Amino acid sequence: MSVFSHSRIESYETCPKKYEFAYLIKPPKGPDGIEAFMGSRAHDALEWLYGEVKVCRVPDEEDLVGRFRQVWDAEWKDDVRIVRPDRTADDYRAIGEKALRDYYRRYHPFDQAVTVGLELRVTLPLDEDHEIIGYIDRLDRVSDGVWEIHDYKTAATLMTQDKADANRQLALYELAIRQMYADVREVTLVWHYLALDCEVRSSRTPEQLADLRAQVLESVKHIEAQHSFPARTSNLCDWCEYRPLCPAWKHLYQTEALPEGTRAEESGVVLVDEYLRISDEMAALKARQDELKDAIATRAAADGVDRLFGTGGSLKVFRYTSIGLPDAKDPRRSELEAELREMGLWERFAVLASYPLSRAIGDGALAPGELERLEPFVTRCEGVKLYPARNR
Q1: The model scores a pTM over 0.85
Q2: Which residue among 65, 214, 323, 385 is buried most deeply as judged by most CB within 10 Å?
Q3: pLDDT tens-digit map of 79-136
Q4: 314: part of which helix (H) or strand (E)?
């Protein structure tokens, strides 16, 4: 049985290389980021709170904050990463404490529903060979047939309603609990944004849940078919625990570890600095070349000639008109195709879209049998492209 989770799928979608590190290679992880650390401690405190409520004990507000402080101190390590230079660990601790106080005041005495499970492990078979697992922060039974799935977030950015309605994680949990319990008629998905003192709610139709199940199975099979896992750089890299091992960042860490004053002499640094310098020079030359091109065209038109001469050669001025047609994203594209079909010209001008096909082959997006049939037509040439990025 192949076991996946929402987090595992999301990891691949965010960065295939991070997925490879986390689920295939599994090297020792780097230290936690402060945001994840704070979120885990808030989860710990709320799990304790509702555990107390389940046995008919309602802690007071200071008890909840005290529990947060206790688990913070017990779990704290000095290597917890703080990416933002304008924040300290005490800042995040204060944010967590305020969030829990706001939550306590909003929901006290915590009798809105009966808590069925805390950090509840759920499983969802997708087919005979694939299964989804997950952990629900809190599962509530509001009344007969009416349930709620709760998820705690400590992010400072509020999820939009559109994103909530498209969220995969809690909808998968809904599929799981509908399978686990007979008395499930209506389910509401609830996200608690603790730092913002608000919640977002959503629900799913049976048709949406059936579509989701099929889509997730397709995604899982696609991931399993992959053989290469390229790094996908973004701002999220700053929070990735595998960054020192990642081929997109490893050289940076290697050079930062060099003795002070020697980094600029490292061979890779020398190559990059020279390449970027030449790129700047070429960009300046290209800008000047474009200015000259416009001036030459203007002069030739004014003189009524199509060729200008210099001491070392000449330039022919060729004027042309580019033909533009609606591309695949243009709503007029379908109208153009209909006209061509009606005129009997479709077969004459319809051509194979080689780039999308070659990309599908390279990305492993085709089924093994499909790829095998196309392989005799495929040629593979190794190439290199460079994408400069300036230091921030």
Answers
A1: no
A2: 65
A3: 999 999 999 999 999 999 999 999 999 999 999 999 999 999 999 999 999 999 999 9
A4: strand 314-316
User: What is the structure's pLDDT at 389?
Assistant: 66
Question: What tokens were used for 326?
Answer: 């609606």
The top-level CATH class assigned to 112-224 is alpha beta
∠ Cα 98 100 101 (to 5°): 65
Q: Rounded mean pLDDT of 224-251?
A: 94
Question: Where do the domains of the chain lie?
Answer: 31-110, 112-224, 250-316
What whole-number distance in Å separates Cα of residue 318 and Cα of residue 327?
27
Vertex 376, ends 370 and 382: CA angle to 5°? 100
b/e per residue 293-332 (b: at least 16 CB within 10 A): eeeeeeebeeeeeeeeeeeeeeeeeeeeeeeeeeeeeeee
> Is 80 exceeded by the pLDDT of residue 240?
yes
Helices (H) and strands (E) in the chain, counts: 14, 8
Which residue carries 């997006």 as its tokens? Answer: 365
Question: Residue 261 carries which DSSP code?
Answer: T
- The CA-based angle 266-269-273, given to 5 degrees, is 140
Asked if 122 and 136 count as a contact pair (C-beta separation under 8 A), the reply is yes
As a three-state string, the secondary structure of 109-138 is CCCCCEEEEEEEEEEEECCCCEEEEEEEEE
C-beta atoms surrounding 269 within 10 Å: 16
